[in-house]
Amino acid sequence: MSNRTPITEQPWSLLVGGLREYAVFTLDEHGVIDSWNEGVRELFGFEEHEFVGKPGSVIFTLEDRVAGADDKEFSVARAQGEAMDDRWHVRKNGSRFWANGIMRAVKSPDGEVIGYLKILRDQTEKRLTEARLRESDRRFTTAFRNSPSPMALLKAHDLRVLDVNDAFIKTFGQGRPDVIGRTLQQIGLAPEPDGFSGLAGALERDRRLTTEAPFTGADGLPGFGTFTFEPITLAGEPHAIMLMHDVTQWRRVQSQLEQQQRLVEAILNSLPGVFYMMDDEHLVRWNDELERVTGLTGDELTKATAADIVVEAEEVREHIAAAFANGASSMEGRLRSVHGVSTPYLLTGRLVHLDGAPFVLGVGVEISDQVNARSLLERRATEQTVFAELAASTLATRDVQPTLDLATRRVARTLGADHARIVEATDEGLQVRASFP
Description:
With about 425 residues, the protein is an alpha+beta fold. The chain is built from 16 helices and 17 strands. The strands form four sheets. The protein has a five-stranded antiparallel sheet with strand order 2-1-5-4-3, sandwiched between helices. Helix 15 runs antiparallel to helix 16. The radius of gyration is 44 Å and the shape is elongated. The N terminus is likely disordered.
């Protein structure tokens, strides 16, 4: 039997009793619990009579007891005066929690170990948070590395590169050693002369920005990209993720489409008469000649119906309905001008389907009041048919070459010519775009 003074009567026992967020208890020199605080009840769920008198291993998991972790803790505390660990512990109900623990050896004045003080604090939430952060970092790293779009991790204040993904290396032909530690401007991604003006300041204010800028690809050819900068905070410091989408090909296609569109407009405006395209009620497209003849602006024509433009209102409605029903229709009518002038026209409509929707494409050729010979009308009708075919071909495809080929054939046959040719003026001179035969 020991003649020592019990640990619970030491002065620090007053402190032990007042700590509730920590589980604090003492053990005798044999490792048996001989005092506790309220924190033990809070953390482990034991009452005093269920805890005091039990071996210190009662809070260890079975696998740790089998591995001798409890004995090792006592040995380290005896030898070094203190043992610290982070491990899973077991509550009274069998559930587990992660705790940070420290065991200190209590010695008598002559250096004899007379007991131990154990302090634990629940770190489960902290551990889970750290685990979630690690998993989040893992997912971010995986997504960053494997993204098909070029990405770079930047310092927000100076746009200095911290890391890049594989797609970045492939797109720009610059390896990680070539770019890490350098600014976007230094590696040639920022447009000159002012670079991404104001970007660093915006990122430090936690603002997301998207801009377009030129770049030089791995093949040495110029390209164009959409750059998105997403602000993020790492280790308390402002950073940014740069994501780039290569829009070089898209811009080329857009440029080609715009060029095709200009050519389509030129073809429609070159028709010798008015051109119009209608749904079942309103105009949806027309050429400049229709605006000139009627005196109406583009906005006014958008709101106008055929009856607002043609004097013979009832007849023009029947003409349009016949075109939708039968595929084609023609009539003589007078186009109304806002200046009070009406001009006779031969109007021809033809049904077409564009993107699955039905429309009537029509052309109108002016008829002189003094000339009403049937032969002239028949010729006008033939010309109208040709013009309608050309307009339909032009609007039905983004490639104007078939329309140009059709135009040369139709013009040659209509005029009875042996051959026809369409030429285009370019910087290199005149180029033949289509010819017949």
